[in-house]
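Worked Example 4.2. Consider the chain below.
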Amino acid sequence: MNGGILSRGSDASFMTGGIRYSQVWEDHLLLEEGLHVQPEDDVLSVTSAGDNVLALLLKRPRSITALDVNPAQQALLELKIAAIRLLDHDDYVALLGFRPCPDRRRLYNTVRGTLSSQARAFFDAHEDALLGGLCDSGRFESYVKRFAFEYFSRTVPIQAIEQLLASDSLSEQRRLFDTHFRPAEPLFRKLLGREALSREGRSEAQFRYVGDIDVGEALWRRFEYACTAIPARTNFYLEYLLTWNYKDLEAGPPYLRPSNFEALRSLVDRVCLVTEELGEHLARKGAGVYTKANLSDVFEYLSAETTEHLMQALGRVLRPGGRMAYWNLFVARESPATLRPPFRHLDELSTRLSQRDRSWFYQAFHVEEVSGDPAADWAAGTSSS
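Applying the procedure from the previous section yields the following structure tokens:
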């Protein structure tokens, strides 16, 4: 549930005009294992809120290009990078809203002068979001926070939530879920149904290619899986959804962990922020400029034809042996037979990682690898089409 429509000729208007995602709800561990980033890699990553850009940065690639069509998402990552450079860890997490702070304006003023004019103008105009805590300021987070209050605080005892998150066994998680969560399934399905999400949490345009499915029921099944089939004790995505807090930042997202802070400070100069549609970006890049690509769930919002065109372009800009990784939410997308080669879908790895996805929203995670000479394969495909 990140990123946006990032392709030439697609309707990206609903992904601009403000912060849509202030946190990343895609499991960084899947990306890290699926992409297997190495020091010689040049990575392309959808920015979204920047959390997984920074998680991949900790693998010390040569470079990361953080790409998003939404200037607000780029401003958010730019602010995080500036705070990493100039603040200590306590002030960094306080500025972002993960810990209480009596004077975020002072912290913002410390980094404000180093921001680009675009990022500075954005945050100057959105002071309420800044002072209230940016971590919960996204359109999606604002809605899910209201959902969490209505669903969990009113229907599930806090003791049951605490016990679930501290549980040492899946059988105990199942017992707690059946006893305390399952009775409120109808409310969950209503609050996270298609109508409610498209009205307040996402956009109807984001459901353009979603078939006739019960969105609330699909999300309930995935939520149940996360609560009963994956260890909750180490699932900070579930912790935040249930409590709206990271109790221990060292067990939270990698970019917030105290032990990673100095490493991030030494690495942030390797990040290049590019505000551009993905299709336009790929069209102006030469063959083999990237080795790895985190594409979030961008294909969710595209037609099968547009997806194929974008994947063809990715096959050209990725070097042999390079990989791309992406999620499917409600729309099944992967490279078509016409693009194999250059792509080889890593079936076993994709399935294994999908089953371990702690974020729980997504139906599938895909990893594909470039084989042979992608530039030659791409040129041959173009000439024959």
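The mean pLDDT is 89. The first strand starts at residue 42 and ends at 46. Compare this with Example 4.1 before moving on.
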